[in-house]
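Notes from hallway chat w/ T.B., transcribed later so I don't forget. T.B. wanted the structure written out for a chain they're using in a teaching module, and asked if we could keep both sequence and structure tokens in one place. Agreed to drop them here.
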Amino acid sequence: MTQAAAPTFQALATDYDGTIATHGIVDPPTMEALERLRAAGRRVILVTGREIDDLRTIFPELTRFDLIVGENGALLYWPATGREELLAKPPPPEFSQALRDAQCERLSIGRVIVATFEPYDRVVFETIKAQHLELQVIFNKGAVMVLPTGVNKASGLRAAVKALGITTEEVVGVGDAENDHAFLEICGFSVAVSNALDVLKRKVRMVTRGDHGRGVTEMINQWLSEGLHAEVSRYQQKSNQ
């Protein structure tokens, strides 16, 4: 069978927590690798479940990214200008108030997303049902994220690449957790860092030897020095067997 030509990748789409960041912190070598990638003419897109204000408190240098997909796909944020675009409507205020009244701990309310942590997922589901709302619940390592139906990291990334004038096939995606699968599945090349969940590792094209930012740096080094075409070819050969 004839193999398809390897694509030219124009951008990196990376998760934050557990991927480029360890315990919320991005180390200097990882930052340097991201800067080298941008200097080589590639775009760097952050795809995160965090709210922008929350992200800014732990990572004030947001201008290191060309574009940010925040709140698990619910908004776009341009760090260079501060422009923000909501990609969905937030739940009604009565929904968040009901969760407050139920004393959900660590409740967070963003522009669109409403989030808490397990075991309050039961309260969340009961509230959605009681208020007859068209909302979905996305889990991420204990976090319980509530978003409008159809909103996830994949829908957010599609909006991001359209804004940048590229396609998802031209994107290398990297992540570590269950909520990353949606956007990694639509990328031209998908990567999991070594600390990723096993279920994610089984579905991507490349698993790094290093964990967290070390794994991302490893992948970027290979991309810039040798390209990822060899990894693409190996994956195609495996798929054709």
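Follow-up for T.B.: The longest strand covers residues 135-140. Might be a good example for the class.
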